[in-house]
Amino acid sequence: MPWFSSDMLRVSKRAESTEAKRQPDESSPAGTDHHENGNALIEFIVLGTMLMLPTMYFLISVFALQSGAFAASNASQQSLQYVQQVEPSLRGQGAAQSVAERAASDYGVDASKVSTQFGCEDSCANGERLTVSVSIEVQLPLIPWPGAPTIATMTSQAISWGGLYS
C-alpha cells in the first residue's frame, strides 16, 4: 500500500463523518424539525411580558395606595395646623377642605376625591379641641376615563387638644 493511501483513507473517513453530521438522523425527533430555529427567544419574551405586566400593575397599584395614605395623613395634619392658626371666626369646614385639597394635590390626588370633616368641641374658641378628618378615594392607576373603580378609601384624623402650633 502506498504511503498516501492511509492518508486518503483518513480523509475519506473524515468526509463521511462530517456528511453524517450534516444529515439529520431520521430516528431522532430533534433531527426531524428544522423550522423552530429562534422560537425559544420569542417564547421567552412573550412569557416574560405576560408575567411582568400584571406584576408591574400590582406594584403601581400599591404605590397609588401608599400615595393616598400619605396624602390623607398630611392633608389632615396641615388642615388642622391651618385651622388652629386662624381666628376662631374663620374656622370652619370650608377652610379645612381647601387646605386639605391643596395638601393632597402634592401627592397627585384630584381635589374631587378629597372629603373633609371638621369638628369643634364647643364654639371653636382658642384652647378647645379641634378635629379634622380627611378621606381620600384612591382609584385604579392608569385608567384614563372618569369614573374609574376605587381601590380603597384612605382616612386620617388629626386632633388638637387645645395647643397651638408655633
Please provide a written account of the structure.
There is one protein chain. The chain is of the alpha+beta class and 166 residues long. Strands 1-2-3 form a three-stranded antiparallel sheet, covered by helices on one side. It has helices at residues 3-22, 29-32, 39-85, 93-105, and strands at residues 114-120, 130-139, 150-160. The termini are far apart.
Could you provide a short overview of the structure?
By secondary structure, the chain is of the alpha+beta class. It is built from four helices and three strands. The protein starts with a helix and ends in a 6-residue tail after the last strand.
Order of helical and strand elements: HHHHEEE
Residue-averaged pLDDT: 83
How far is the first residue's CA from the last residue's CA?
112 Å
**Major beta sheet summary:** 3 strands, antiparallel
Taking Cα atoms only, what radius of gyration do you get, to the nearest Å? 36 Å
Per DSSP E runs of 2 or more residues, the count of β-strands stands at: 3
Q: Helix share of residues?
A: 40-55%
Put simply, the count of helices is 4
Low-confidence stretches: none
**Multimeric status of the protein:** single chain
Q: Which strand order spans the largest sheet, edge to edge or round the barrel?
A: 1-2-3
**Helix vs. strand class:** alpha+beta
Share of β-strand residues: 15-25%
Which term fits the overall shape? rod-shaped
